[in-house]
């Protein structure tokens, strides 16, 4: 994943389309947002749309807008996604679900950098970077005449593949710590400790639903936690049913991540405190980004001022 983020940071400096490949729930939109944040368009809008969620008969209007009276029910003119993303980035999630007629119009928009709203006779210039994503094998879809080859090659100027979580065992630990931090803050919970059995179960599970399943499990556990402790029984049943050996490197006695990192002692013997978990993960991400605090905060999903506060804590 370190190489993936390195490549994404380099691609962000280009303005060419990017195609992100990966199973559902692997974090394709998060990667797309990171690319936008690192690009020169970072101060403009990032508009995300799931192509599978829009009815086929409404797609053209949703993407390109329409004029008043263009069709029955068009009581007023309306901007489309391209106009809303003007100057910024448009993220087309599940582009493999886009019908062929709209694929042709999207290709034309990419080539000509213009769009024509429904009911209009005038072309409108657009300045939008396209970042697309899919869980499908688009080359297979091309062979089955479900996806245009010319659009595929236009989008594939730069492509990134996010491996499923089951292929990223080392990343699970990082994500667990980051998501505990995230949902503790979102729910304003005074979570002080994580039961070792709970942490072990979170790290041992294979997550067929990828990052989305992991986040849902942690959100549930943080919500159900009480008395400042996240316990094994707070996890979904499917995680509790997969016990495994305690993951090396998590014991408070010998689990330092970086050679010079002195972590605070656990407030309850044998149980890692939330402060310990936060510190370990923050230093790992900081090391992975080469000390870049802006990118570290982005990868952690927290504000930079929050990162600075965490680093200053004893």
TrEMBL record:
InterPro entries: AAA+_ATPase, AAA_lid_NorR, Homeodomain-like_sf, HTH_Fis, P-loop_NTPase, Sigma_54_int, Sigma_54_int_dom_ATP-bd_1, Sigma_54_int_dom_ATP-bd_2. Signal peptide: none annotated. The keyword Protein biosynthesis does not apply. SMART domains: AAA. GO terms for molecular function: ATP binding; sequence-specific DNA binding. The keyword Transcription applies. Coiled coil: none annotated. Residues 1-223 form the Sigma-54 factor interaction domain. It holds the Pfam family HTH_8. PROSITE patterns: SIGMA54_INTERACT_1, SIGMA54_INTERACT_2, SIGMA54_INTERACT_3, SIGMA54_INTERACT_4. Keywords: ATP-binding, DNA-binding, Nucleotide-binding, Transcription, Transcription regulation. One of its GO terms (biological process) is regulation of DNA-templated transcription. It comes from the Bacteria. This is Sigma-54-dependent Fis family transcriptional regulator.
